[in-house]
Amino acid sequence: MNTSNLFISQKKRSLQVFSYLMRHGASSRKEIADSLSVTGATLTKISKELIQANIVFEKGARESGTVGRKELDIDIVDNCCYALGLDIANRYLRVTALNARLELVAMREWHYLLLTPDILEESIAYLKQFIKEYSRERILGLGLLGQGYVYHDKFLSLPIHNIREILESHIDIDIYCMNNIRGLAITHSFLCEDDYSFFMLHYGPGICTVMVQDGIIVSGHHNKAGEIAHTVWNPHSDECCSICGKKGCIESILNFERVAKQADPNHEAIYTDYKLLMKACRKDHNQALDKALVTLANIVNLLLSFSDPQKLLLCGEIFTNPLFFSRFSDLLDGLGNHFPSELISLVENYSEKRWKSAGIVVMNEYFGNTLLL
Questions:
Q1: Is the pTM here over 0.90, yes or no?
Q2: 17-20: long-range contacts at Cβ-Cβ below 8 A with a sequence spacing of 24 or more?
Q3: Low-confidence spans in the chain with pLDDT less than 50
Q4: Residues 6+ positions from 228 with CB-CB distance below 8 Å
Q5: ∠ CA 21-127-101, rounded to 5°
Q6: Would you state the pLDDT for residue 339?
Q7: Residue of 330, 332, 222, 206 whose CA lies nearest to 259
Q8: Contact indicator for 294, 335 with CB cutoff of 8 Å
Q9: Are 300 and 306 in contact (CB under 8 A)?
Q10: Distance (Å, rounded) from C-alpha 360 to C-alpha 186?
Q11: Quick count: other Cβ atoms within 10 Å of Cβ 189?
């Protein structure tokens, strides 16, 4: 039986058990039953069905709290299913594969100055080889993440817009498509069970934001709620966005290239990353960057005032610098929105979450939010 169909046919409680094991690793039936608020008899029945389906196995005995009694842990069969990922940014393309334990079993990267059809074809060939080697029946799907603005599954910020369409013409598996900041937000929510409502901000080289409420991305009618980059902030600006075409959108006035040029009029890099930004900002002692952080703090403060998240999560190299993280936190605090600094934090294990995010987007389709049901 196709593994994806097998999981679709599982009952809610079975998926909850699998989701628990995916997040916590080998556990006793009692631990799982207590966490899911079900009886021991119910959990025994569910685990028996999962074992018979070769999705879960009995790992072995360990001492319990009761004298002389041992408990059998159950765990996931790691090759029962896989999730593929394709994460595409302005300067790299990454293919990943996760097993049921959320372990990376394969990863390959391509680095370039410009994404070309040849590079995309190479990555598709690699995906097809993995599918052939690991069996199509065990592949749950492909998470397709792209940097920047995504509209109707078109990656408008990338040189090749119709990547999903190209993939569908070569690979016969389900594809889950979104921009990579949303994929990161899903990954964070999936792995951090306590974080169900948060606002995530990624700064660099452009602006990316996403709102998550009760473990679910706020999408809105046109699937762009919470994405602020192409909202017009300064209608009198002469800066025209190369992506959305609007003058004065947040992306156009705060992107690294514009800030770098304000700091150093001789800055001419085609693509401005964090290192090039810092080099330019030494020319004016970070004045242009500080002005950008002030504007960004005002924008985020406005969003926090009506979205009311539990946390503000920051990501991007600029915030890993304690100087800029503190400055941004202080700016927010000074705006009087009563959002405590202890609720502002960096995304932990950022690199690992980025590597896994495209695959976890797929896993989330099957096992996400099951603990809330």
A1: no
A2: 17/43, 17/46, 17/47, 17/50, 17/56, 18/50, 18/55, 18/56, 18/76, 18/367, 19/367, 19/368, 19/370, 19/371, 20/371
A3: 371-373
A4: 207, 209, 250, 299, 303
A5: 10
A6: 76
A7: 206
A8: no
A9: no
A10: 8
A11: 24
Residues ≥6 apart with Cβ < 8 Å to 199? 209, 210, 211, 212, 226, 300, 303, 304, 307, 309, 311, 312, 313
Distance set, CA 323 to CA 282, 334, 338 (Å)? 14, 16, 22
Residues 57, 74 contacting (CB under 8 angstroms): yes
Pick the closest to residue 90 from 270, 252, 248 (CA basis). Answer: 270
CB-based contact 153:196 (threshold 8 Å):
no
Q: How far apart are CA 126 and CA 303, in angstroms?
A: 41
> Which 3 state secondary structure label does DSSP give 275?
helix
**Pair of tokens at residue 260:** 């770098």
DSSP summary character for residue 197: S
Closest CA to 343 of 303, 308, 311, 300: 311
272: buried, middle or exposed (CB in 10 Å: 19+, 13-18, 0-12)? buried
Write out pLDDT tens, residues 152-170: 889 988 999 999 999 999 9
Question: At which residue do the structure tokens 């959002």 appear?
Answer: 339
